[in-house]
Amino acid sequence: METREAGTTIMQQNTSELRKSILPGHTGLSLDLGCGRFKQAGSIGFDIDPRSQADFFCDLNHGIPLHDGAAKEVYCSHFLEHVEALEKVLQEIYRVCEPGATVTIVVPDANCPGAMMPGHLFVLSEEFFRKNVAFQGYFAIESVRWDYNEDSL
């Protein structure tokens, strides 16, 4: 059985101070937000759950503890439907992205049985992202792919 070092717990620290201290000056990062047990290979994982494969444990509802423009790609799989501060989290994703960054968001299809599972605070759809004025100007949707995998819910 493989063992790994525990990630760094940063939950109780001030997010604005963390922006100065976590990976300062690094750019071109690949992030996996809310990575859970399935962190993307080669990415830096953030999650609140200490049982996850995260490199950093923190509550992303309070911000992403990285400096502006640090990420070339951000991956969020079955994460956004769980956050309490959805608009803030999406604004933070935009903030940490460098110009032209790729953001991949995977959420349960609103019509799948898992969309309304306990713990899901939002049912998100392509229409939600296209029509919600709070997010216009942050991201352009280039493609939509629906993924239903009971293991990742």
Shape category: globular
How much helical structure, as a percent, in the residues?
Answer: 10-25%
User: What is the residue-averaged pLDDT?
Assistant: 79
Strand order of the largest sheet: 1-4-3-2-5-6
- Stretches where pLDDT is under 50 for at least 5 consecutive residues are 1-6
Can you offer a commentary on this structure?
16% of the residues lie in helices and 20% in strands. The two termini are 25 Å apart. The protein contains three helices and six strands. It is of the alpha/beta class. It has a six-stranded parallel sheet with strand order 1-4-3-2-5-6.
Summarize, please.
Helix content is 16%, strand content 20%. With 153 residues, the protein is α/β, with parallel strands linked by helices. The longest helix has 11 residues, at 86-96.
